[in-house]
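Bench notes, afternoon.
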Amino acid sequence: MKIEIIDDKFDPWQSLVDYKKNELQNDPKIGASSIFLGTMRDFNEDYDVDAMHLEHYPGMTEKYLENIVQTAIKKYKLIGGLVIHRVGLLEPTDPIVLVATWSDHRDSSFSATRDIMESLKSEAPFWKKESTDKGFRWVQPVDKTESSNEIQ
C-alpha cells in the first residue's frame, strides 16, 4: 500500500509503473488491476471553472486515507493499493486523484477501487474552492448514496 498527498503535478501512468515495479515486484499472484484517474474539469454544475484550490488538513487526511485503503485491503483481500491525491492549485486537465488496486480476481479489484474512490469523494477531509466565471465558491462534498445511485 502506498498513499501520497502531493502539491505538484504528477504523471499517473508513471506512478503506476513505478509502484508495480518497486512495490509489487510483478507479483505472480496478481490476476487483476483496477485503476481510477480523476482529472480537473473546466465546468461544474452551471459554472465555468478556471481553477480549483484543494485544501486538506495534514496528518488527519493521510490517516483517513490509510484507514480506507487498509479497510479495502482486508475486505477485498487486495495484494496492493495506491492512492495519490493532489492538493494546492489545480487547473483543468490536471490529474487530481489516482486510485489503483491489485488482486487475484477482477471483482475484488473493481469493488475495492470503487469503494476507495467513493469514500474519498464523499467523506475524505478535502476542501475544494473553485474559481469560476461567477467568482469563487466552496464545493460541497458528494453524498455517497447519491453518487452510487448515479452510476447504476
